[in-house]
């Protein structure tokens, strides 16, 4: 059994003149990122590997949600489409059982929808995460079961 957690970064500022990768989280985004971490702990989910976009807002989200956990920053996550994210996931070491990917929309949302279902899509707002389980090895991953979906707007 493999568990994939796909997390979209929490709410970030929109400051004119600030390069997109440099946008930090808002105060609400910081609170929501901490809530993500609390929720993952409550669900008993602890990733063996965290792959994160190097953008400031994704870094902050991962660091606030998972304080003290090692995080691998992968530049290919930034601006990646769902198929590119899936290729990255398929390269994960088979010893990893639970993988957390911290990224951006639309890629993160499309990845979740592509692996699970396209029915009744509630969207994927900032700070949302989805937990997907699969019996497939990472190298063959092409579908999974949506176990839960969480959004700070809903909780």
From TrEMBL:
The lineage of its organism: Bacteria, Bacillati, Actinomycetota, Actinomycetes, Streptosporangiales. CDD domains: HP_PGM_like. It comes from the Bacteria. InterPro entries: His_Pase_superF_clade-1, His_PPase_superfam. This is Phosphohistidine phosphatase.
């Amino acid at each position: 059994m493999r568990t994939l957690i796909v997390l979209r970064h929490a709410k970030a500022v929109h400051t004119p003149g600030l390069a997109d990768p440099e946008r930090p989280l808002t105060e609400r985004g910081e609170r929501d990122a901490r809530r993500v971490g609390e929720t993952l702990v409550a669900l008993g989910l602890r990733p063996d590997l965290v792959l994160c976009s190097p953008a400031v807002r994704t870094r902050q989200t991962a660091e606030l949600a998972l304080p003290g956990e090692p995080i691998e920053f992968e530049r290919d996550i930034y601006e990646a489409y769902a198929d590119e994210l899936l290729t990255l996931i398929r390269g994960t070491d088979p010893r990893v059982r639970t993988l957390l990917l911290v990224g951006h929309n639309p890629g993160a949302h499309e990845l979740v929808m592509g692996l699970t279902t396209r029915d009744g899509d509630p969207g994927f707002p900032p700070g949302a995460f989805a937990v997907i389980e699969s019996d497939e090895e990472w190298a063959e991953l092409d579908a999974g079961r949506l176990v839960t979906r969480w959004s700070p707007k809903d909780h």
